[in-house]
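Go through this pair.

…
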Amino acid sequence: MLAGAFGRWHTFAELDTIATIQENVFTGEFEWLGTVDLALEKMLLAIDGAQKSIRFEIYIFRASLIGESFREALVRAARRGVKVQVLTDALGSIALPEKFWDPLVQAGGTFRWFNPLKFRRLSFRNHRKSLICDDAIGFVGGFNVAPEYQGDGITKGWHDVGMIVTAPLARELAASFDALFNMADYRHRRFSRFRKSKIQRIASTIDGQVLFTGPSAGPHVMKGALLADARKARNIDIISAYFLPPRQFRRTFAKQARSGGRVRLVMAGKSDVALAQLAARRLYQGLLTAGVEIYEYQPQIMHTKLFLFDNTIYVGSANLDKRSLFINYELLVRVNKEEVTGWARSFFEETLGHSRKIDLETWRKSRTFWTKLREQWAYLVLSKVDPYLSQLQMSVLRRDLQKTNTPADF
Protein backbone atom coordinates (compact mmCIF):
# COMPACT_ATOMS: atom_id res chain seq x y z
CA MET A 1 0.00 0.00 0.00
CA LEU A 2 1.01 3.62 -0.55
CA ALA A 3 0.86 6.28 2.15
CA GLY A 4 -0.75 9.52 1.05
CA ALA A 5 -0.11 13.03 2.35
CA PHE A 6 -3.77 13.68 3.02
CA GLY A 7 -4.52 11.13 5.70
CA ARG A 8 -5.74 8.38 3.38
CA TRP A 9 -4.32 5.30 1.61
CA HIS A 10 -4.35 4.07 -1.99
CA THR A 11 -4.02 0.37 -2.84
CA PHE A 12 -1.94 -0.66 -5.82
CA ALA A 13 -5.17 -1.73 -7.51
CA GLU A 14 -6.42 1.83 -7.17
CA LEU A 15 -3.20 3.14 -8.67
CA ASP A 16 -3.69 0.83 -11.65
CA THR A 17 -6.93 2.64 -12.39
CA ILE A 18 -5.40 6.09 -12.08
CA ALA A 19 -5.85 6.83 -15.78
CA THR A 20 -9.59 6.21 -15.39
CA ILE A 21 -9.64 8.50 -12.38
CA GLN A 22 -7.94 11.19 -14.44
CA GLU A 23 -10.65 11.01 -17.08
CA ASN A 24 -13.11 12.00 -14.38
CA VAL A 25 -10.84 14.56 -12.73
CA PHE A 26 -9.67 16.45 -15.79
CA THR A 27 -12.71 17.16 -17.90
CA GLY A 28 -13.13 20.16 -20.17
CA GLU A 29 -10.56 22.84 -20.91
CA PHE A 30 -10.25 24.22 -17.37
CA GLU A 31 -10.79 23.16 -13.80
CA TRP A 32 -10.49 25.46 -10.82
CA LEU A 33 -8.54 24.48 -7.71
CA GLY A 34 -10.10 26.37 -4.83
CA THR A 35 -7.92 25.05 -2.00
CA VAL A 36 -4.32 23.98 -1.61
CA ASP A 37 -5.37 20.50 -0.45
CA LEU A 38 -7.41 19.96 -3.62
CA ALA A 39 -4.58 21.24 -5.81
CA LEU A 40 -1.88 19.07 -4.26
CA GLU A 41 -4.06 15.96 -4.31
CA LYS A 42 -4.91 16.35 -7.99
CA MET A 43 -1.30 17.09 -8.84
CA LEU A 44 -0.30 13.79 -7.25
CA LEU A 45 -3.02 12.02 -9.24
CA ALA A 46 -1.73 13.58 -12.45
CA ILE A 47 1.85 12.52 -11.68
CA ASP A 48 0.71 8.94 -11.06
CA GLY A 49 -1.22 8.99 -14.33
CA ALA A 50 1.56 10.42 -16.52
CA GLN A 51 2.82 8.12 -19.27
CA LYS A 52 5.46 10.11 -21.17
CA SER A 53 6.69 13.26 -19.46
CA ILE A 54 6.47 15.28 -16.25
CA ARG A 55 7.76 18.83 -15.93
CA PHE A 56 7.56 20.27 -12.42
CA GLU A 57 8.79 23.72 -11.36
CA ILE A 58 8.31 25.16 -7.89
CA TYR A 59 9.55 28.13 -5.90
CA ILE A 60 9.30 26.67 -2.37
CA PHE A 61 9.64 22.94 -1.79
CA ARG A 62 10.13 21.70 1.76
CA ALA A 63 11.40 18.35 3.00
CA SER A 64 8.19 17.22 4.71
CA LEU A 65 5.46 14.63 4.50
CA ILE A 66 3.85 16.33 1.50
CA GLY A 67 7.29 16.86 -0.06
CA GLU A 68 8.10 13.17 0.33
CA SER A 69 4.75 12.24 -1.23
CA PHE A 70 5.65 14.28 -4.31
CA ARG A 71 9.14 12.80 -4.47
CA GLU A 72 7.79 9.24 -4.18
CA ALA A 73 5.24 9.89 -6.94
CA LEU A 74 7.94 11.36 -9.19
CA VAL A 75 10.27 8.42 -8.47
CA ARG A 76 7.50 5.93 -9.37
CA ALA A 77 6.96 7.79 -12.63
CA ALA A 78 10.67 7.74 -13.50
CA ARG A 79 10.86 4.01 -12.78
CA ARG A 80 8.04 3.26 -15.19
CA GLY A 81 9.87 5.13 -17.95
CA VAL A 82 8.39 8.62 -17.74
CA LYS A 83 10.79 11.49 -18.46
CA VAL A 84 10.75 13.44 -15.18
CA GLN A 85 12.27 16.92 -14.83
CA VAL A 86 12.18 18.97 -11.61
CA LEU A 87 13.20 22.62 -11.38
CA THR A 88 13.39 24.27 -7.95
CA ASP A 89 14.41 27.84 -7.22
CA ALA A 90 17.68 27.91 -5.28
CA LEU A 91 16.64 30.80 -3.03
CA GLY A 92 12.99 29.89 -2.51
CA SER A 93 13.97 26.36 -1.48
CA ILE A 94 17.24 27.29 0.20
CA ALA A 95 16.48 25.01 3.18
CA LEU A 96 15.99 21.93 0.96
CA PRO A 97 19.00 19.55 0.98
CA GLU A 98 20.14 18.70 -2.54
CA LYS A 99 20.41 15.05 -1.53
CA PHE A 100 16.63 15.09 -1.07
CA TRP A 101 16.33 14.46 -4.81
CA ASP A 102 18.94 11.65 -4.95
CA PRO A 103 16.24 8.92 -5.17
CA LEU A 104 14.72 10.67 -8.20
CA VAL A 105 18.08 11.01 -9.95
CA GLN A 106 18.89 7.37 -9.20
CA ALA A 107 15.55 6.37 -10.74
CA GLY A 108 16.41 8.22 -13.97
CA GLY A 109 14.83 11.62 -13.33
CA THR A 110 16.54 14.99 -13.59
CA PHE A 111 16.72 17.72 -10.96
CA ARG A 112 18.15 21.23 -11.30
CA TRP A 113 18.41 24.27 -9.06
CA PHE A 114 17.29 27.43 -10.81
CA ASN A 115 19.88 30.22 -10.58
CA PRO A 116 22.29 28.79 -7.95
CA LEU A 117 23.01 31.40 -5.32
CA LYS A 118 25.52 34.08 -6.24
CA PHE A 119 25.24 37.63 -4.97
CA ARG A 120 25.66 39.29 -8.38
CA ARG A 121 22.51 37.57 -9.72
CA LEU A 122 20.59 36.92 -6.51
CA SER A 123 17.58 39.03 -7.50
CA PHE A 124 16.43 36.95 -10.43
CA ARG A 125 14.19 34.20 -9.04
CA ASN A 126 11.91 31.65 -10.68
CA HIS A 127 8.70 32.30 -8.74
CA ARG A 128 6.61 30.13 -11.08
CA LYS A 129 4.66 27.09 -9.92
CA SER A 130 3.60 24.67 -12.62
CA LEU A 131 3.19 20.96 -13.30
CA ILE A 132 2.79 19.68 -16.86
CA CYS A 133 2.08 16.01 -17.55
CA ASP A 134 2.36 14.47 -21.03
CA ASP A 135 2.07 17.96 -22.63
CA ALA A 136 -1.68 17.52 -22.07
CA ILE A 137 -2.46 18.64 -18.50
CA GLY A 138 -1.05 21.72 -16.83
CA PHE A 139 -1.39 23.04 -13.29
CA VAL A 140 -0.81 26.69 -12.44
CA GLY A 141 -1.40 28.68 -9.28
CA GLY A 142 0.22 30.23 -6.25
CA PHE A 143 0.67 27.13 -4.10
CA ASN A 144 4.06 25.77 -3.12
CA VAL A 145 4.77 22.28 -1.78
CA ALA A 146 5.12 22.89 1.94
CA PRO A 147 3.10 21.75 4.97
CA GLU A 148 2.08 25.24 6.03
CA TYR A 149 0.12 25.64 2.79
CA GLN A 150 -2.02 22.54 3.34
CA GLY A 151 -5.65 23.07 4.26
CA ASP A 152 -8.75 24.85 3.05
CA GLY A 153 -7.46 28.35 3.72
CA ILE A 154 -10.22 29.00 6.25
CA THR A 155 -9.89 26.57 9.15
CA LYS A 156 -6.20 25.79 8.44
CA GLY A 157 -3.54 26.29 5.82
CA TRP A 158 -3.02 29.20 3.44
CA HIS A 159 -5.69 30.75 1.22
CA ASP A 160 -4.70 30.13 -2.41
CA VAL A 161 -6.14 29.27 -5.80
CA GLY A 162 -5.07 27.54 -8.99
CA MET A 163 -6.28 26.07 -12.24
CA ILE A 164 -5.90 22.96 -14.38
CA VAL A 165 -5.56 23.61 -18.11
CA THR A 166 -5.38 21.22 -21.02
CA ALA A 167 -3.67 21.37 -24.42
CA PRO A 168 -2.88 23.67 -26.15
CA LEU A 169 -2.20 25.84 -23.08
CA ALA A 170 -0.37 22.93 -21.45
CA ARG A 171 1.97 22.70 -24.46
CA GLU A 172 2.85 26.38 -24.08
CA LEU A 173 3.61 25.82 -20.41
CA ALA A 174 5.84 22.89 -21.38
CA ALA A 175 7.77 24.93 -23.96
CA SER A 176 8.40 27.72 -21.47
CA PHE A 177 9.47 25.20 -18.80
CA ASP A 178 12.02 23.76 -21.23
CA ALA A 179 13.50 27.21 -21.82
CA LEU A 180 13.97 27.86 -18.10
CA PHE A 181 15.21 24.32 -17.45
CA ASN A 182 17.90 24.76 -20.09
CA MET A 183 19.13 28.01 -18.57
CA ALA A 184 18.78 26.88 -14.93
CA ASP A 185 22.48 27.32 -14.15
CA TYR A 186 22.20 30.91 -15.43
CA ARG A 187 25.38 30.78 -17.51
CA HIS A 188 23.62 32.02 -20.65
CA ARG A 189 24.76 29.39 -23.08
CA ARG A 190 25.28 30.05 -26.75
CA PHE A 191 22.15 30.31 -28.87
CA SER A 192 20.21 31.56 -25.83
CA ARG A 193 18.77 34.23 -28.12
CA PHE A 194 16.53 31.53 -29.60
CA ARG A 195 15.03 30.86 -26.17
CA LYS A 196 14.19 34.47 -25.42
CA SER A 197 10.77 34.35 -27.08
CA LYS A 198 9.82 31.42 -24.86
CA ILE A 199 10.61 33.31 -21.67
CA GLN A 200 9.29 36.86 -22.20
CA ARG A 201 6.13 36.51 -24.27
CA ILE A 202 2.37 36.07 -24.53
CA ALA A 203 1.33 32.70 -25.97
CA SER A 204 -2.15 32.85 -27.52
CA THR A 205 -4.26 29.73 -28.08
CA ILE A 206 -7.90 28.98 -28.81
CA ASP A 207 -8.49 28.47 -25.09
CA GLY A 208 -6.79 31.62 -23.81
CA GLN A 209 -3.36 33.06 -23.28
CA VAL A 210 -0.36 32.34 -21.08
CA LEU A 211 1.75 35.33 -20.11
CA PHE A 212 5.41 34.63 -19.34
CA THR A 213 7.71 37.26 -17.93
CA GLY A 214 11.18 37.61 -16.49
CA PRO A 215 13.84 40.22 -15.75
CA SER A 216 14.02 42.59 -18.66
CA ALA A 217 14.57 46.21 -19.62
CA GLY A 218 11.28 45.92 -21.52
CA PRO A 219 8.79 45.59 -23.01
CA HIS A 220 7.04 44.25 -19.93
CA VAL A 221 4.37 42.06 -21.52
CA MET A 222 2.58 41.05 -18.32
CA LYS A 223 2.28 44.60 -17.06
CA GLY A 224 1.02 45.79 -20.45
CA ALA A 225 -1.67 43.13 -20.73
CA LEU A 226 -2.95 43.61 -17.16
CA LEU A 227 -3.01 47.38 -17.51
CA ALA A 228 -4.84 47.24 -20.86
CA ASP A 229 -7.58 45.03 -19.39
CA ALA A 230 -7.83 47.18 -16.26
CA ARG A 231 -8.31 50.35 -18.32
CA LYS A 232 -11.19 48.79 -20.27
CA ALA A 233 -12.98 47.22 -17.31
CA ARG A 234 -15.91 48.71 -15.41
CA ASN A 235 -15.64 46.15 -12.63
CA ILE A 236 -12.25 45.23 -11.22
CA ASP A 237 -11.87 42.55 -8.52
CA ILE A 238 -8.37 41.67 -7.38
CA ILE A 239 -6.97 39.29 -4.78
CA SER A 240 -3.24 39.79 -4.39
CA ALA A 241 -1.17 38.44 -1.51
CA TYR A 242 1.49 41.09 -2.11
CA PHE A 243 0.24 44.38 -3.51
CA LEU A 244 2.61 47.04 -4.75
CA PRO A 245 1.57 47.95 -8.31
CA PRO A 246 3.25 50.62 -10.43
CA ARG A 247 1.71 54.11 -10.43
CA GLN A 248 -0.19 53.50 -13.69
CA PHE A 249 -2.28 50.79 -12.03
CA ARG A 250 -3.10 52.94 -9.03
CA ARG A 251 -4.16 55.79 -11.28
CA THR A 252 -6.31 53.45 -13.35
CA PHE A 253 -8.03 52.01 -10.26
CA ALA A 254 -8.72 55.51 -8.93
CA LYS A 255 -10.02 56.71 -12.29
CA GLN A 256 -12.36 53.74 -12.70
CA ALA A 257 -13.73 54.17 -9.18
CA ARG A 258 -14.31 57.90 -9.63
CA SER A 259 -16.07 57.38 -12.97
CA GLY A 260 -18.67 55.00 -11.53
CA GLY A 261 -16.89 51.68 -11.91
CA ARG A 262 -16.37 49.30 -9.03
CA VAL A 263 -12.89 48.42 -7.87
CA ARG A 264 -12.47 45.91 -5.03
CA LEU A 265 -9.08 44.85 -3.70
CA VAL A 266 -8.59 41.98 -1.26
CA MET A 267 -5.27 42.09 0.58
CA ALA A 268 -3.65 39.92 3.22
CA GLY A 269 -4.86 40.55 6.75
CA LYS A 270 -2.32 37.92 7.80
CA SER A 271 0.85 37.74 5.74
CA ASP A 272 4.02 35.65 5.73
CA VAL A 273 5.95 38.74 4.59
CA ALA A 274 5.38 41.58 7.07
CA LEU A 275 7.40 44.02 4.94
CA ALA A 276 5.11 43.48 1.94
CA GLN A 277 2.02 44.00 4.07
CA LEU A 278 3.39 47.28 5.44
CA ALA A 279 4.28 48.51 1.93
CA ALA A 280 0.78 47.70 0.63
CA ARG A 281 -0.86 49.55 3.51
CA ARG A 282 1.14 52.65 2.58
CA LEU A 283 -1.15 52.85 -0.50
CA TYR A 284 -4.51 52.36 1.20
CA GLN A 285 -5.45 55.95 2.00
CA GLY A 286 -4.99 57.29 -1.53
CA LEU A 287 -7.00 54.44 -3.06
CA LEU A 288 -9.75 54.65 -0.44
CA THR A 289 -10.08 58.41 -1.01
CA ALA A 290 -10.66 57.73 -4.72
CA GLY A 291 -13.51 55.30 -3.94
CA VAL A 292 -11.63 52.01 -4.27
CA GLU A 293 -12.92 49.35 -1.86
CA ILE A 294 -10.20 47.61 0.16
CA TYR A 295 -10.61 44.44 2.22
CA GLU A 296 -8.23 42.31 4.27
CA TYR A 297 -8.65 38.54 4.45
CA GLN A 298 -8.89 37.39 8.08
CA PRO A 299 -8.96 33.61 8.78
CA GLN A 300 -5.51 32.51 7.56
CA ILE A 301 -2.45 33.71 5.67
CA MET A 302 -3.58 34.83 2.23
CA HIS A 303 -1.32 33.83 -0.68
CA THR A 304 -3.80 34.10 -3.58
CA LYS A 305 -3.24 35.75 -6.96
CA LEU A 306 -6.50 36.25 -8.88
CA PHE A 307 -7.40 39.20 -11.10
CA LEU A 308 -10.86 39.79 -12.62
CA PHE A 309 -11.46 42.56 -15.16
CA ASP A 310 -15.13 42.31 -16.20
CA ASN A 311 -15.24 38.89 -17.92
CA THR A 312 -11.49 38.41 -18.15
CA ILE A 313 -9.57 36.54 -15.44
CA TYR A 314 -5.91 35.99 -14.68
CA VAL A 315 -4.56 33.25 -12.41
CA GLY A 316 -1.04 32.00 -11.79
CA SER A 317 2.09 32.81 -9.82
CA ALA A 318 2.34 36.59 -10.21
CA ASN A 319 1.27 39.11 -7.61
CA LEU A 320 0.34 42.66 -8.50
CA ASP A 321 3.68 44.07 -7.39
CA LYS A 322 6.88 45.29 -9.01
CA ARG A 323 8.89 42.16 -8.27
CA SER A 324 6.38 39.97 -10.12
CA LEU A 325 5.98 42.37 -13.04
CA PHE A 326 9.62 43.34 -13.58
CA ILE A 327 12.08 41.06 -11.76
CA ASN A 328 10.88 37.48 -11.16
CA TYR A 329 10.21 34.77 -13.72
CA GLU A 330 6.41 34.48 -13.51
CA LEU A 331 3.42 33.18 -15.42
CA LEU A 332 -0.29 33.98 -15.60
CA VAL A 333 -3.09 32.26 -17.52
CA ARG A 334 -5.59 34.70 -19.06
CA VAL A 335 -9.10 33.46 -19.93
CA ASN A 336 -12.24 35.19 -21.13
CA LYS A 337 -14.98 32.56 -20.92
CA GLU A 338 -18.16 32.95 -18.91
CA GLU A 339 -18.12 29.42 -17.51
CA VAL A 340 -14.63 30.06 -16.18
CA THR A 341 -15.09 33.63 -14.92
CA GLY A 342 -18.37 32.65 -13.21
CA TRP A 343 -16.51 30.38 -10.80
CA ALA A 344 -13.88 33.06 -10.22
CA ARG A 345 -16.58 35.57 -9.27
CA SER A 346 -18.06 33.11 -6.78
CA PHE A 347 -14.61 32.44 -5.33
CA PHE A 348 -14.00 36.17 -5.01
CA GLU A 349 -17.31 36.73 -3.21
CA GLU A 350 -16.63 33.84 -0.85
CA THR A 351 -13.20 35.30 -0.07
CA LEU A 352 -14.83 38.69 0.48
CA GLY A 353 -17.16 37.10 3.01
CA HIS A 354 -14.14 36.22 5.15
CA SER A 355 -12.57 39.66 4.81
CA ARG A 356 -12.75 42.88 6.79
CA LYS A 357 -13.61 46.05 4.89
CA ILE A 358 -11.27 48.97 5.50
CA ASP A 359 -13.17 52.18 6.33
CA LEU A 360 -11.46 55.41 5.22
CA GLU A 361 -12.17 57.48 8.32
CA THR A 362 -11.30 54.68 10.71
CA TRP A 363 -8.11 54.01 8.75
CA ARG A 364 -7.08 57.65 8.92
CA LYS A 365 -7.60 57.84 12.67
CA SER A 366 -5.71 54.60 13.32
CA ARG A 367 -2.48 55.69 11.60
CA THR A 368 0.07 56.85 14.15
CA PHE A 369 3.23 58.68 13.10
CA TRP A 370 5.34 55.59 13.74
CA THR A 371 2.96 53.36 11.79
CA LYS A 372 3.15 55.68 8.79
CA LEU A 373 6.93 55.83 9.09
CA ARG A 374 7.24 52.04 9.07
CA GLU A 375 4.91 51.78 6.07
CA GLN A 376 6.88 54.44 4.19
CA TRP A 377 10.14 52.65 4.93
CA ALA A 378 8.73 49.31 3.70
CA TYR A 379 7.37 51.00 0.58
CA LEU A 380 10.75 52.53 -0.24
CA VAL A 381 12.57 49.22 0.26
CA LEU A 382 10.25 47.18 -1.98
CA SER A 383 9.20 49.83 -4.49
CA LYS A 384 12.50 51.65 -4.97
CA VAL A 385 15.50 49.84 -3.48
CA ASP A 386 14.67 46.29 -4.62
CA PRO A 387 14.04 47.28 -8.29
CA TYR A 388 17.15 49.48 -8.27
CA LEU A 389 19.39 46.68 -7.00
CA SER A 390 17.88 44.29 -9.55
CA GLN A 391 18.57 46.73 -12.38
CA LEU A 392 22.13 47.11 -11.09
CA GLN A 393 22.64 43.34 -11.13
CA MET A 394 21.16 43.17 -14.62
CA SER A 395 23.58 45.83 -15.86
CA VAL A 396 26.54 43.89 -14.45
CA LEU A 397 25.38 40.66 -16.09
CA ARG A 398 24.84 42.37 -19.43
CA ARG A 399 28.31 43.92 -19.28
CA ASP A 400 29.87 40.52 -18.57
CA LEU A 401 27.96 38.95 -21.45
CA GLN A 402 29.09 41.68 -23.86
CA LYS A 403 32.72 40.95 -22.96
CA THR A 404 32.23 37.30 -23.96
CA ASN A 405 30.00 38.17 -26.96
CA THR A 406 27.19 36.02 -25.46
CA PRO A 407 23.53 37.00 -25.97
CA ALA A 408 21.39 37.41 -22.86
CA ASP A 409 18.27 35.50 -21.97
CA PHE A 410 16.56 38.57 -20.53
Residues 22-207 form a domain with the Endonuclease; Chain A fold (CATH 3.30.870.10). The radius of gyration is 21 Å. The longest helix spans residues 369-403.
